[in-house]
Specification:
This protein is an alpha+beta fold. It is 56% helix and 18% strand. The protein starts with a helix and ends with a strand.
């Protein structure tokens, strides 16, 4: 945990990119970069980002709707596997990095960062896969296209 804090601290302020369709894009904003501050160090900038314009948001929505088509055609077991793998990565490989970012960016202590970020995110992924499995298990069986069995 301490090592993750020591690794993150020199990289501050972190740059938060605008992502569309999995790719970093330049925003069309003419505004200057916005900043977020470390709550316990009001003069220290934690992150910088360029505010999105209405056009940026519209483009992101369009990209998400396009991606939705492929996602909904992906078998449930494959979608579930993605979320379970993400939960595994969050709870192991990136646990301390997430905690360090939460501690600095939100002014949390280590215990709060563990509960509020790393554990909560992993649980969110796992529980929602479980909930989706339960919903799918309660659906009527389809024997023929459009006919319940």
């Amino acid at each position: 945990m301490i090592a993750a804090l020591h690794e993150l601290r020199p990289r501050i302020p972190v740059r938060v990119p605008t992502i569309q369709n999995g790719e970093e894009v330049a925003t069309q904003s003419s505004q200057a970069d916005a900043e977020t501050y470390i709550p316990s160090e009001a003069s220290s900038v934690f992150a910088k980002y360029t505010p999105a314009t209405e056009a940026d948001v519209s483009a992101a929505i369009e990209a998400a709707l396009e991606a939705k088509k492929a996602w909904q055609d992906t078998p449930f077991v494959d979608r579930a596997a993605i979320f379970l793998r993400a939960a595994e990565i969050v709870s192991k490989k990136y646990r301390f990095e997430i905690m360090a970012a939460t501690m600095l960016g939100q002014g949390k202590n280590a215990w709060q960062a563990e509960i509020d970020a790393a554990a909560e995110l992993a649980d969110f992924f796992r529980f929602n896969v479980s909930y989706a499995e339960e919903i799918y298990s309660r659906q009527p069986t389809l024997n023929e296209r459009g006919q319940a069995g």
